[in-house]
Design goal:
By secondary structure, the chain is mainly β. It is built from 2 helices and 21 strands.
């Protein structure tokens, strides 16, 4: 080979060697980048939360998983994981979709959110327009399909929640008589055909907490223990610790419109209850005597005090010593 040809090929050979080295470096960088930024393969719902909370001192078991009111915002926090179960992030902003078990007529608005590029978690804020019971949330990445598909995340059974129709807080103090109504007409001064079940909470010794929460929820037969879906689930939350006893109880006066409760004897009109924030309601027993709970009773219906007013509404007195959810059976 001539000296001139060797001199001509030397720069080409060197250039090819440098290009090969550069390609190797790029490949290594890409591999490292891929290792540093694993792609998500599944979504997990971490929590559902809102700005609403139970009054301080409310017994833990009585506090619902989250307090959500129809038409008011709540948020869903999710995390993303790779095939090894490690936190992972999308390489670009990725649309997310929110769905619930509330049926096609009561889906989240908005029903979408975004997983930001490089972030291993996302928070989506939405609303449900109508009351509902035992709602479960699912978050998915619907635009990712085929090999890029990501398994949606669904809230666990412990993360189910009720969507309330109404919620408010009333000021309270220990050893200061408390009375407040919710539902019906004029805060349960009377019940109506359209709003036939309401309640008035009466706390002769007040509450330890500075506020008492009152709310109304949706009626159904299976979970809420209601005899009619026209009714409501009454709930109150607060700190009653040490203020009430079986012989000196608190009272929830449940008022039921004559259109719903006026066709049978008062003693045959039952109430359902639960002392837990996320449990089905079951039938409450009768009290053994006026204004007195029996031995071992959590709550009872005082049929001695219970009556009908001049409008034909049924007034049922439920006695208790702690927070509860109550419905007309």
């Amino acid at each position: 080979m001539s000296r001139e040809l060797r001199l001509f090929r030397a720069p080409i050979t060197a250039a090819l060697a440098m290009l090969s080295l550069a390609l190797v470096v790029v490949g290594l960088q890409a591999g490292l980048a891929a290792g540093a930024s694993p792609k998500p393969v599944r979504i997990e719902v971490d929590q559902v939360f809102s700005s609403l909370s139970a009054p301080a001192g409310t017994p833990d078991g009585a506090v619902p998983y989250v307090l959500v009111v129809a038409g008011q915002p709540f948020s869903v926090q999710v995390s993303f994981y790779d095939s090894e179960g490690q936190p992972a992030a999308f390489g670009q902003d990725t649309p997310l979709s929110i769905s619930t078990t509330t049926g096609s007529g009561n889906q989240p608005v908005p029903a979408t959110g975004t997983a930001l590029a490089g972030e291993t978690t996302a928070t989506l804020t939405t609303t449900l327009s109508q009351p509902a019971n035992q709602v479960r949330v699912t978050v998915s990445a619907p635009t990712l399909k085929g090999p890029k598909a990501v398994t949606p995340g669904t809230a666990s059974t412990d993360e189910r929640f009720d969507v309330l129709s109404e919620l408010r807080y009333e000021a309270s103090a220990p050893n200061t008589p408390f009375s407040a109504g919710i539902g019906g007409q004029a805060n349960c001064t009377s019940a109506t055909i359209d709003d036939p079940v309401c309640g008035t909470l009466m706390l002769p010794n007040g509450a330890q907490s500075s506020q008492v929460l009152l709310s109304l929820g949706l009626c159904d037969a299976a979970y809420a223990g209601c005899g009619s879906t026209r009714g409501s689930v009454l709930q109150f939350l607060g700190d009653l610790d040490g203020l009430y006893t079986p012989t000196s109880p608190a009272t929830m006066l449940v008022r039921c419109d004559k259109s719903l409760c006026g066709k049978k004897a008062i003693a045959k009109t039952k109430l359902s209850y639960s002392l837990l924030g996320n449990a089905p309601l079951g039938e409450a027993p009768a009290c053994p005597a006026k204004n007195r709970l029996g031995a071992g009773q959590e709550v009872c219906v005082d049929y001695v005090q219970s009556t009908r007013d001049n409008a034909g509404d049924t007034l049922l007195y439920m006695l208790l010593t702690s927070d509860a959810r109550i419905s007309v059976s």
